[in-house]
Specification:
This protein is mainly β. The protein folds into 2 domains: 132 residues, Beta Barrel (Thrombin, subunit H), CATH 2.40.10; 141 residues, tm1086 (SG structure) fold (3-layer Sandwich). It is built from 5 helices and 18 strands. The protein has a 6-stranded antiparallel barrel with strand order 1-5-8-7-6-9. Strand 7 and strand 8 form a beta hairpin. The longest helix is centred in the N-terminal third of the chain and has 10 residues. The two termini are 20 Å apart. 48% of the residues are buried.
Length: 296
């Protein structure tokens, strides 16, 4: 039985966003990794035919690769592009509105900072029909979400549809959230210090072999819901003792110093003992929503 949690969902506004496929980019001819090795590898953008949400975040011969379809706003206007990245929430419904795949449905996985991508999962059959001429309509719904019984917990980038299916437990004083991994704030890197956690992501650094082993980072999957201890994402991303942030893994590992699997904020709380992570191996967006590698 799913936990019924009170929210302000009825007061949220659903808005339409228009997106298109982002072309693959070559950031540098060779990128020098943290180990001093120069690599020429695929990165962000395009359609990833064989990398889906639910797949491992490690092991790919890539850098920052995003699962499924990487999209950007159809408009090049700066404010509109920011709105596209800001309003799209994990779990939002997407519809293809042109081309051979017209009418097909997909799901927003997350947003990637810097490139300002919104990452969308579509079934494999839909990916095969998509072209760079196609457009997408996202029903953006979730920014402004509040948990009525837990006013100290702030929600960002989280659709009510996903929230209702997440592994949660409420004992009246604390909300336990199922996560696959718990990592310390001390190993967070790129994106740290951002003044906003409603756009983009920040990276779990993976340059220390002992940390990878200790926190089992090499078992991370795209779409995993994780907890970051002593991390406050209330009004940006910073270290704060006792705070907890719940995030979702949105892109694969990176060889660059200060980088690694990217995570987007879903919940955060600075009041100790209110937001509690609980290990649950099935706490992955693909498994929860039955999409990506776990599609029916």
């Amino acid at each position: 039985m799913r936990l019924m949690i009170k929210t302000n969902e009825k007061n949220l506004v659903m808005l339409a966003l228009a997106g298109r496929i982002a072309h693959a980019d070559e950031f540098l001819p060779f990128e020098v990794g943290h180990d001093g090795t120069a690599r020429a590898l695929p990165g962000t953008g395009s359609i990833a035919y064989n990398v889906q949400v639910g797949d491992p975040a490690f092991g790919w011969k890539t850098d920052h690769t995003e699962p499924g379809v990487s999209t950007v706003c159809v408009s090049s206007e700066k404010n509109e592009a920011r709105g596209y990245n800001f309003l799209a929430c994990c779990g939002n419904e997407v519809r293809v509105v042109s081309g051979d795949a017209k009418g097909a449905r997909g799901t927003v996985i997350g947003t990637h900072g810097g490139v300002e991508h919104v990452i969308i999962d579509f079934p494999i059959a839909t990916l095969e029909k998509l072209t760079f001429d196609d457009k997408f309509l996202i029903k953006a719904f979730g920014q402004g979400l509040e948990l009525t019984d837990f006013p100290d917990i702030k929600c960002y980038n989280l659709s009510p549809a996903l929230l209702k299916k997440m592994p949660l437990k409420n004992n009246g004083k604390a909300l336990a959230v199922g996560v696959t991994h718990i990592v310390p704030a001390g190993i967070m890197g790129s994106g740290l210090g951002s003044l906003s956690c409603t756009r983009g992501d920040y990276d779990i650094t993976t340059q220390d072999p002992e940390a990878i082993k200790k926190y089992k980072l090499d078992t991370l999957r795209l779409g995993d819901i994780i907890a970051i201890e002593d991390a406050d994402n209330s009004y940006g991303r910073c270290y704060k003792k006792g705070a907890v942030s719940i995030c979702v893994v949105i892109h694969a590992n990176s060889f660059a110093a200060g980088h690694g699997p990217g995570v987007m904020t879903l919940m955060t709380c600075t009041k100790k003992g209110v937001l509690k992570p609980s290990i649950n191996p099935k706490a992955n967006v693909a498994q929860i929503l039955r999409i990506g590698r776990y599609a029916k």
